[in-house]
Amino acid sequence: MDNLLELRHISKVYQRGLINTQATIALQDISLTLKEDEPTILTVAGESGSGKTTLAMLLLGFITSTTGEIIYRGKNINSLEGKERIAYRREVQAVFQDPFAVFNPFYTVDHLLTVPIRTFGLAKGKADARKKMDEALNAVGLRPEDVLGRFPHQLSGGQRQRINVARALLLKPRLLIADEPVSMVDASLRATILETLRNLQRDHGVSIIYITHDLTTAFHIAKSIIVLYRGGVMEAGDVDKVIKNPQHPYTKLLVDSIPWPNLDQRWGEHPIKAREAQGGGSGCKFIGRCPYAMEICKTVPPLFEIEEKHAAACYLYDKQPQIVAERLSELLPV
Fold first, then answer.
1. Cα–Cα distance between 3 and 90 in angstroms, integer?
2. Which among 8, 127, 198, 204 would be 20 to 30 A from 221, CA to CA?
C-alpha cells in the first residue's frame, strides 16, 4: 500500500530584489512520511518565522517547493491533473487560524457548507445535502438548528471554527492541515475544538498535521512533534519526551516560555542571546542565540538519536547515533 503522504527533501527559498537579490530559506531539507493505514496527529511547532505556514501552503498546493517532492498516494502533487487533482483538493483540507476571515459576511452558514457539496457532487439532492450538513455539524458538537440560517456575525468564534472543521469533514478528507486553529478562540473553547480534532482522527481515520506555536495545546492533542526553527528541524519525537525533557537549546527556550500554574516557578530563566545575532552561512540556524555554541556549530548538525523516539539536531549529542533525514518519521509515534 502506498503511503498517504511523503515529503522528500523539501526546501523552499524565497527570493527578493531584482539587482541585489536576497534569499530567505523558509524550509530546508524536510523529509516526512504519513502512512495510509495509520491515521495520526502530528504537531509541527515553532515560533513565528520558523516555516510552519510555508509547510502548510506547500501541502495544500498553494505554492511549490524550490527543491524536493511532495508525494500523495504515490504521485507528485505538482503533476496531478483532472480527476486526480480534484480528488486531492477534496481529500486534503485545511482549518486556518482566523475563524472570522474565512466567512463571507453576506452569506449564511448554509452557503459555506453547500458550496463544497455542490462543487464535488457529494449529494443526490437537497434532502441528502441537508442530511450530510446535519451529520457534519453534529460531529463537531454543533446543533444544526442553532447555526444553519445564521450569518457569521451571529455566531461566536468557537462556533465559526467548528463550522470550518465541519466543512472539511463534509468532504471526507484523508489529511487535515490545522494551522493554529485555536489561537484566536477563547480559552474556554480551545479544549472543545481540540477534542473535535482528536475525534476526527480517532473516529473518521483522518490524519492531522497540527501547526502551532503553543506547546501546551501540542502536548494535549498529539502523540508526536517536530520542532522547527528558521526552516530546519531542531528536535523531533514523542511529544511527551520532547516537551517534558527537551534536549535542544531552542526547544528548551520554547518550553521555558510556558507560564506554569505555579507562583514559585519562574519562566524565562535560561539565558538566550538577543535575536539580532541570527547566525549565518551553512551552520546551525540557532547558533546566534545559543548559549552553548561551539566552533563545530558552524557546520549543519544532523539529527542525533538521544533515545528511542527522540532526536535533536545539536552537537551537544554528537556521541549519539545520527539519523538521516529520510528516517525522521521513524521517530514519530502514531
1. 18
2. 8
Place of cell 437537497: 126
Angle (deg, nearest 10), helices 157-170 and 187-204: 10
> Nearest 10 degrees: CA dihedral of 69, 75, 79, 80?
-130
CA 283 to chain centre: 25
Cell 539536531 appears where? 313
Q: Three-state DSSP class for 70?
A: strand
Q: Are 268 and 256 in contact (CB under 8 A)?
A: yes
Per-residue pLDDT tens over the stretch 151-173: 988 988 888 888 888 888 888 89
What's the Cα-to-Cα distance from 123 to each of 86, 89, 100, 119, 131, rounded to whole Å? Answer: 16, 17, 27, 10, 9
Residue type, position 303, single letter = L
pTM of the predicted structure, to 2 decimals: 0.89
Identify the residue whose cell numbers are 495545546: 217
Pair type for strands 5-16 and 92-95: unpaired
